[in-house]
């Protein structure tokens, strides 16, 4: 069992008082960076003791740890009282999504939330990669402190967000906020990896290769077995401006606002919305053609049979028991209860690399 270092006045573990609650006045406690950590994120198991020790030695960092998503709201209330220059998140994409959802819906910082930075930790780090965070999380945190001592504006970027709502679940006023949604065979393979491969204790990279290989075996050879991912289910996709709907089974369904995920695609002059949709129909020849075009940097330059790339401000996804994953959180389509994706008001993020 890892031994936790004695917390300083700048570290808050679950159940402890924060510095303000302990009686310190704001002028006695002015950290530049507030760090929100999820100790249960798998990628944090090895790094968290180093991060705790670093925060204990650096008064520029206020460290708050949560162990469940329902604790993030209270964490944000405390962090808002500190008024940091940067809010850093230490966890996987699921932790980032939960924090962005609370930051967006909770209004704890009023109209001026601090820019968000994401440390490279967790099993999946698409958001961190999109913002240029790579390598050692402690080195990234040290770089953030340096940036927070200067004018942050040259290092911040606006990012559009995805707001996911499912009518009838009380989410109309409190959507789930994220930046990357995967669906169809992609999501089913991700769930398969999470439930079947990760428990084997293999390195992440090996687990991802095995899951991808199993998905390709299923698609190209048509194999059916309990140890392979499940069959993909049909979906219907509707865009905001009444363009033709897409119906069918898809191997790849992606909706994102991130730049690097679809950086190989040529958007041309299309400015039809912030939500970028890529849907590849579930046929071996179509998937193979899309893969070759992507490797060659030609995906999106011209129309391809069975490959759909669109931009919109609203996308409605309908289906029966098909998996969707928004930054680590799984949703399931149900007959008669579509899932709505809309653009949300942008937030500022700290970009650590060009």
Features:
6-stranded antiparallel beta sheet, globular, 2 domains, disordered N terminus, 8 helices, 354 residues, alpha+beta, Rossmann fold
Secondary-structure element series:
EEHEHEHEHHEEEHHEEEEHEEEEE
Q: Give the end-to-end Cα distance, rounded to a whole number of Å.
A: 39 Å
Low-confidence stretches: 1-10, 14-28, 266-270
Evaluate the radius of gyration.
21 Å
The CATH superfamily of the largest domain turns out to be: Probable inorganic polyphosphate/atp-NAD kinase, domain 1
Which CATH class of the largest domain applies here? Alpha Beta
Please estimate the helix content.
25-40%
* Secondary-structure arrangement, i.e. CATH architecture of the largest domain: 3-Layer(aba) Sandwich
Strand content: 25-35%
- Average predicted confidence as pLDDT: 80
- What is the number of domains? 2
Describe the global form. globular
CATH fold type of the largest domain: Rossmann fold
Write the layout of secondary structure elements.
Elements: E1 11-12, E2 33-37, H1 48-57, E3 61-65, H2 72-82, E4 86-90, H3 93-106, E5 116-118, H4 126-130, H5 137-148, E6 156-165, E7 176-178, E8 180-183, H6 184-197, H7 204-221, E9 235-239, E10 246-248, E11 250-256, E12 275-281, H8 284-295, E13 307-312, E14 314-319, E15 323-326, E16 329-332, E17 339-350
Parallel strand pairs: 1-3, 2-3, 2-4, 4-5
Antiparallel strand pairs: 6-7, 6-17, 8-11, 8-15, 9-10, 9-14, 11-12, 12-13, 14-17, 15-16
